[in-house]
Design goal:
- The chain is an alpha/beta fold.
- The chain has a 4-stranded mixed sheet. It has a 4-stranded antiparallel sheet with strand order 6-7-5-8. Strands 13-12-9-14 form a 4-stranded parallel sheet.
- Helix 2 runs parallel beside helix 4 and helix 21 packs parallel to helix 23.
- It starts with a helix and ends with a helix.
Length: 705
């Protein structure tokens, strides 16, 4: 029994659909007609007593159910009218009563009045409700970024807590969903009004034809009989329809209300006694003009004038009382909601404005469902997985990422910031898939051309129905969330070294103390300070070298610092000690595809090294630099075709200097030395950077001199 009650609404909808097929007894039909009118009255009263639309959030679904109920009754009443065989009376008792009420013995007048009612419903109420719902939906969506921004501002200033902010964001999302549903639901009301006109015409014309063929009477009697029934049937259908349409207009205009409609009307008119008093005086003056309907004008005018005068006196008394006894808010409320000026009187709160998030991601409001876990968004869970994976691979824990929407962005845009500054930007289409174009696609797929934001691959935004065909043609199809998450992950990987600060280094060292306390005690601060260790670890992370084996890094640093104070050389020695880690990081299936430098080129690079007070630096001539950059650009195409990480293999002496130079032009290229590769790896050279003739001639000339 309990399960039946829980599914009662679904059963009611099924029964309503059956009305379209199963004939109903006249007595039952009358009860259902009265029930229909009663339900519409209840819905109208509810919409007039609620203070905001979300208090009646089921209205869009209820609108569909009541419309279906009304159409089911229309079909049943049409069957009852058209099946009249000349015995008894046509239609049901309720239909006949309403038909006689509006016709009053005059069929022509009844038809005219009925069509006026129908046109008022169709042109004025339904059309107006549809437009109001459309505008409300658009403006609600447009206002979402501003509301979200206000919530973020209140949260950051301490006016609300996280739970309150979460509740307010959920309410904004529900408002957007509600008004979006109402925009579509009003189309149902419009269709219902149109269908009522069609059914009325069918009842009248079809009834006259069927009555004439069945010999119910002459044409005049048949027309009168079926006209009354048709008008009555249309009226019992239009009354609920008008009330539901009015309720639709009421509910979408409750966004600026503070209470029920009754309360709002009384309070707001009570605040304008002068307007009522002025209207009364104007009517009295008009009543004194000869030729005007004096008595009605004087009665209404005097009534308004007296009402306005009384309301004016009451308003003045309330104002005087309020000024004499000002209401002070409770101390608890003052403490709970301080003003902005009072809040920032505390200098500690001002310092809160200086906080910069290590990683921040802003997005347009169309992307909120991808992030909001209450709406099924999975970005946060994917970030958690990425943080864990990166910690396992690289030995560094990514800081927390702050996610929030921004009204300054386009609806489909997102921005990744590192320490408050934008480092990457992208745009995705939520209702599409991104298809990465293969080298030789098996066919053309329709879509919006774009560039994949993380790797710069030519792509297309395609509709979901084209996903399978795109995969058949060889495209790699990615969902929008994966596109955004991948881009964010690659940006964080590329800038991870910037996120490694002194506090993170200390935390890593403290973690190492648990397993190697003697090593830490020996190394820090006797040989290595936290500042120098931070510089070494940053250098490793910047070039994609994992720092997970912190014990080996510290041991090698201590040994190297015994012979040199140059941190660059210390870092190079650490890289050699981490050769297995580096090999595993860049080697695939026992092979390492690289680009090498010609011996003459390496010699020219070594000759370009200079030394000053800050250390050794590369002072390479522009011709040699241009030659290396140009040749490397050609080889990068081979790496892209093989989907391999671009690697330049060189000697340890120039590795760090060449890496710094190439990073300015090709940040994605890694420079490794021969000493960093284990002996069991098969090295495959994709090319060799050499000196061209223009570079070789000066070299030979110099040698001759």
């Amino acid at each position: 029994m309990r399960r039946i009650f829980q599914n009662s609404i679904a059963l009611v909808v099924v029964v309503i659909v059956m009305f379209l097929i199963i004939p109903l007894h006249e007595g039952l039909l009358d009860i259902l007609i009265i029930t229909n009118i009663s339900i519409s009255i209840v819905i109208l009263m509810v919409t007039m007593t609620i203070s905001e639309a979300l208090e009646f959030s089921i209205f869009p679904s209820l609108l569909l159910i009541t419309t279906l109920f009304r159409l089911g009754l229309n079909v049943s009443t049409t069957r009852a009218i058209l099946s009249y065989d000349g015995t008894g009376e046509v239609g049901t008792a309720v239909i006949r009563t309403f038909g006689q009420l509006i016709t009053q013995g005059n069929i022509v007048l009844g038809i005219i009045i009925f069509f006026i009612i129908v046109l008022v419903q169709f042109i004025v109420i339904t059309k107006g409700a549809e437009r109001v719902a459309e505008v409300a939906a658009r403006f609600t969506l447009d206002a979402m970024p501003g509301k979200q921004m206000a919530i973020d501002a209140d949260l950051s200033s301490g006016l609300i807590n996280e739970q309150q902010a979460r509740d307010r964001r959920a309410k904004i999302q529900k408002e957007a969903d509600f008004y979006g549903a109402m925009d579509g639901a009003t189309k149902i009301v419009k269709g219902d009004a149109t269908m009522s006109l069609i059914i009325t015409a069918i009842n009248l014309i079809g009834g006259i034809i069927i009555g004439s063929l069945n010999g119910v009477g002459d044409l005049g009697a048949v027309a009168q009989t079926y006209s009354i029934a048709t008008i009555g049937d249309g009226l019992v259908s239009q009354l609920p329809s008008i009330m539901i349409s009015t309720a639709t207009g009421m509910i979408v205009t409750r966004s600026v209300s503070d209470g029920s409609l009754n309360t709002d009307v009384i309070n707001q008119f009570a605040r304008q006694p002068r307007a009522i008093l002025t209207a009364g005086v104007v009517l009295v003056i008009l009543g004194l003009i000869p030729g005007t309907p004096t008595l009605p004008l004087l009665i209404v005018g005097v009534g308004l004038a007296v009402l306005g005068y009384m309301m004016s006196g009451r308003l003045e008394r309330q104002t005087a009382e309020a000024m004499a006894q000002p209401e002070e808010p409770p101390e608890a409320d003052i403490a709970a909601t301080p003003s902005e000026t009072d809040y920032y009187k505390d200098i500690n709160n001002v310092y809160g404005l200086l906080t910069v998030d290590p990683i921040e991601m802003e997005f347009g409001y169309s992307l909120i469902p991808l992030v909001d876990e209450s709406s099924g968004g999975k970005l946060i869970s994917r970030i958690v997985i990425f943080r864990r994976q990166y910690a396992q691979d690289m030995g560094f824990v990514i800081p927390s990422i702050r996610l929030h929407d921004s009204s300054a962005l386009g609806t489909n845009q997102y921005v990744v910031k590192i320490k408050g500054e934008e480092v990457a930007r992208g745009e995705i289409l939520v209702d599409y898939y991104l298809a990465l174009e293969p080298t030789s696609p098996g066919g053309e797929i329709d879509g919006i051309e774009t560039i994949e934001p993380a790797y710069g691959i030519p792509s297309r935004w395609i509709l979901p129905e084209n996903k399978e065909m795109a995969e058949i043609y060889g495209y790699t199809v990615i969902d929008p969330l994966s596109v955004m998450q991948t881009h964010m992950s690659e940006v964080v990987r590329r800038h991870a070294y910037e996120l490694l600060g002194r506090a993170e280094v200390i935390q890593l060292v403290e973690n190492l103390k648990k397993t190697a306390p003697e090593l830490v005690e020996e190394a820090i601060p006797n040989f290595l300070t936290y500042a120098n260790l931070e510089r070494i670890l940053r250098s490793l992370l910047k070039e994609g070298v994992p720092i997970r084996d912190l014990a080996t890094i510290l041991e090698t640093a201590v040994d190297s610092l015994a012979t040199t104070k140059d941190l660059d050389m210390v870092t190079e020695n650490i890289r050699v000690a981490l050769s297995r880690t580096i090999t595993r990081r860049f080697c695939e299936h026992g092979q390492l595809r690289v680009v090498t430098l010609d011996a003459e080129v390496e010699k020219r690079v070594i000759n370009s090294l200079s030394k000053n007070e800050q250390g050794i630096y590369l002072a390479m001539g522009p011709d040699l630099m241009q030659n290396i950059i140009t040749q490397l650009a050609d080889y990068l195409k081979k790496f892209n075709d093989l989907s391999q990480t671009p690697i330049v293999l060189t000697s340890q002496v120039i590795r760090i200097y060449l890496s710094r130079m190439l990073a300015q032009f090709y940040p994605g290229v890694y420079v490794l030395s021969f000493n960093e590769i284990t002996s069991d790896v098969q090295i495959q050279s994709l090319g060799n950077i050499t000196l061209d003739s223009a570079q070789a001639r000066p070299a030979r000339k110099a040698a001759a001199v």
